[in-house]
Design a protein that fits this description.
Number of domains: 2
Subcellular location: Periplasm
Radius of gyration: 21 Å
Protein name: ABC transporter substrate-binding protein
InterPro entries: Bact_solute-bd_prot1, SBP
Keywords: Signal, Transport
Strand content: 5-15%
Pfam families: SBP_bac_1
Order of helices and strands: HEEHEHEHHEEEEHHEHHHEHEEHHHHHHH
Largest sheet: 4 strands, mixed
CATH superfamily of the largest domain: Periplasmic binding protein-like II
Distance between the termini: 33 Å
Strand order of the largest sheet: 9-10-8-11
CATH class of the largest domain: Alpha Beta
CATH topology of the largest domain: D-Maltodextrin-Binding Protein, domain 2
Length: 418
């Protein structure tokens, strides 16, 4: 059913001449993910004597999930191994093999292993973990005599001052802060970071209560709305990760919220901001009880229940999530490992010095409400992202957008009975 569509998106990675089977794997093309996936798959193919077919998927998590759901609902065998976001195991679990006992997950972050275990079934293996970070132009802050901001309000003020100073020096393209503002999963993560940092809840609480309609949540969104066209370009409403990185890496932003993958790209030999960038925790809300809140992210590998070659597919996942491969990806691409012991590996830390302090951040990162909302999470996320986008675009007042959202979520969750 989908073979003709996927064939145009595939690239064959050959093994040895004694190839036995072909395994198809979906890989993100965000940043250098496609290259690293191809290299890892090629190494496995050479080692195993099999072949791997790489399937290109959309950068947008929303679009990728929709593609996966189409394929799996049709019980298609076109993809054997899926790269899945941290919030998808509960949505896709019924279509994924139980990997319990087939792949050893000892040493991985326990929080992520629990996240990937649905109804007692281990449906995905952690590949790398993520937490939102604040990137900043260290050189510009030092020149302006400014500290790294501790609160969102301080970020707003510092971004405005440094942006204005740079524009007066001749860079008319300089902005203060960029983030992921498109109405997709990335905005859900940014939004939950803003809310959690203001002690405003997590959209839907673990007990199923819809908590998003509250004054602190409205305050957090109002502050973010104030950035648009003041310290943040209007175009941010269409930015995902790569658009944000493009602006920051070109030297046209003071601050950027993004994932750890951006670090090696910002410091590549041809990067205009190489050696000029610092990394910090995201600011806290300037309210009583405000905290530094980083959204938990990361990617997993899962095996389709409809694969024709489960043993080989599982073996590919075992190889790609191994300590050696996670170390290679961390060194080459800045991908934060899901294996805790690797954060003490000096070879890994040399190109990624900020990894030394990441473990506490990763352990305490804010999870999206995918566990409590289960199969309805994608609807919850889409509604939340749409409401936040309306508020950022000035199409609705934050309090109004959140009140409407709460009513929608109550209907989706049947008054808390998710």
């Amino acid at each position: 059913m989908f073979g003709g569509v996927l064939a145009a998106l595939c690239m064959l990675v050959p093994g040895t001449p004694r190839a036995q089977v072909t395994i198809s794997i979906s890989c993100s093309a965000l940043g250098i993910e496609a290259r690293l996936c191809r290299e890892g798959a090629e190494a496995w193919a050479q080692q195993s004597g099999n072949e791997v077919r790489l399937v290109s998927t959309p950068n947008s998590g929303t679009e990728r999930l929709a593609l996966y759901q189409q394929l799996l609902a049709a019980r298609s065998p076109d993809i054997d191994v899926f790269q899945v976001d941290v919030v998808w195991p509960g949505i896709l679990a019924n279509h994924l093999l139980d990997l319990s006992g087939r792949i050893d997950v000892a040493g991985h972050f326990e929080e992520v292993v629990r996240n990937n275990t649905v109804d007692g079934r281990l449906v995905a293996i952690p590949w790398f973990v993520n937490a939102g970070l604040l990137y900043y132009r260290r050189d510009l802050l030092e020149a302006a005599g400014r500290d790294v901001p501790e609160t969102w309000q301080a970020l707003t003020e510092t971004a405005r001052a440094v942006m204005q100073a740079e524009r007066e020096r001749g860079n008319a393209q300089m902005w203060g802060h960029v983030f992921q503002g498109r109405a997709y999963e990335g905005l859900t993560v940014n939004g939950i970071e803003w809310l959690a940092s203001h002690a405003a809840g997590r959209i839907v609480e673990p007990d199923g209560k819809v908590s998003v309609d509250n004054p602190r949540a409205a305050q957090a969104l109002a502050l973010a709305r104030s950035w648009i066209e003041a310290i943040t370009p209007l175009g941010v409403l269409n930015y995902a990760e790569e658009e944000s990185r493009g602006v920051f890496q070109s030297g046209n932003a003071v601050f950027m919220r993004n994932w750890p993958y951006a670090w090696p790209l910002l410091n590549a030999e041809d990067s205009p901001v190489r050696g000029k960038v610092g990394v910090a925790v995201l600011p806290r809300g300037d309210v009583p009880g405000g905290v530094h809140a980083a959204g938990l992210g990361g990617e997993q590998l899962a095996v389709s229940r409809y694969t024709k070659h489960p043993d080989e597919a599982v073996d590919l996942v075992r190889y790609l999530t191994s300590p050696a491969e996670q170390k290679r990806r961390a060194i080459a691409g800045g991908f934060t490992p899901s294996i805790v012991a690797l954060y003490e590996d000096e070879e890994l830390l040399a190109p990624n010095p900020f990894f030394r302090d990441l473990v506490p951040t990763l352990r305490s990162a804010v999870a999206r409400p995918s566990g409590v909302t289960g199969a309805r999470y994608n609807r919850v996320s889409a509604e939340f992202a749409a409401a936040v986008h309306k508020a950022l675009a000035g199409q609705a007042e934050p309090a109004e957008a959140l009140a409407d959202l709460a009513r929608s979520l109550q209907r989706i969750g049947r008054a808390g009975r998710w």
